[in-house]
Fold:
Amino acid sequence: MNCINNAKEKLEKYVGRNAIWGWILIDLCIFIIPFFNGIPLLLFMTNKAKELIQPFYAYFSLLFLAYNIINGIKKKRIKTVICNLGIAVLVLFCSCFGLISFKYLNDVIDLFGSISINLIVASFFIPFILCTGVVEYIAQKFEKIIKKFFDLPGEATISVLTGFVSSPSVGIYIAQKFYDTGIYSRKDTIAVMTNFSVVSIGFMGFMISTAKLDNLYGIILALVFFINLLLAFVLIRIPPISKIRSTYQASQIYKGVDNITSCKKLKIQEFKNSFIDTLGYLIQMISQIFISYLLIMILIDYTDILHIISIPITYLMNIFKIEDGSFWAQTLLLGGIDPSFVLVFMARYELDYITRFKIVVLAIIQVIFYTEPIIAMRKVSEPIEWKYIIKIFIERSILGVIIIELFCKCILS
Structure:
């Protein structure tokens, strides 16, 4: 009898081990390996979805706004109703009917549409990571490496890898799911969200091409990957991240699973739950994305607020003896709002290729920018406090500028 039981256990382990490698291969094809027109399946499906739905982004936004209005009426939240109703009327009259024009509205509709598609498409693929035993298996294999370099649990390997191929909102969403299930502590979640939620490779390519740096594409990608890992290595070990307590959201801290076969089955309900969670996430974000984006654009175009806010940053740059402190300060602030704003800023000047190189690399490594990740960080179940966001943004900015300057002086000059 014991022999039969032993044989059964060995067979289960063998099947489980092979099953987990099958899931890992599937996940690599989805998130990492560029099998589909030079990009991973996730980006390929996202791009195809955007091509189909982009003409209907305005109506797409109205669906979320209508839900918020109805929900606000049911729960008697007057501010929510007024806010979402005002945005809905603006979208209807400007984008749907074309009766009036508003300079920035189409941009913010495109922004929300893009974020929505990124998250909705990703929601159908995330269960392939979270519900198949892949997280547990990778955690066991990379625990020591990830703990040594980034002081994070082994499961953070998923965040490190997917953070460079998906969008920032997807990276933040995955980190939030890990926090909700007790895999990440509060400290781990903030560390991952502020260090590994990088813009997608597709957007990196767009910025590099627009800045006419195609010949440096490989160098920029390699440098961005290296700088982000280096910044994460440093920032996780210094305040404010190092001072954050490792508290857990879940009632019981997640321990992983010893038997891989126990979590390899993937159920339809997991996809449904992931999709519903994503819709809830987007519903919370929509009004803030519209209001903050429109307000920021009006302030930048019609006031001197950018120059005023850049004064203390310029002073910091001068302390660290960084040349062209004022120019760097304004670039950092624009990148802190949205990396694409940096391209508009660059278009106003005749810049040599080294300056363009510096600006593009700095914009790409700036994980913390307002129009997507910061709003997402503020809309998770336990929002990241502004004091942490601002401090980490300043640290990333100063260290990033120093590293880029050193690289350009030592390698490109």
Observations:
- DSSP finds 19 helices and no strands in the chain.
- The two ends are 74 Å apart (CA to CA).
- Confidence is low (pLDDT under 50) at residues 7-12, 257-263.
- Residues 320 and 402 are 8 Å apart (CA to CA).
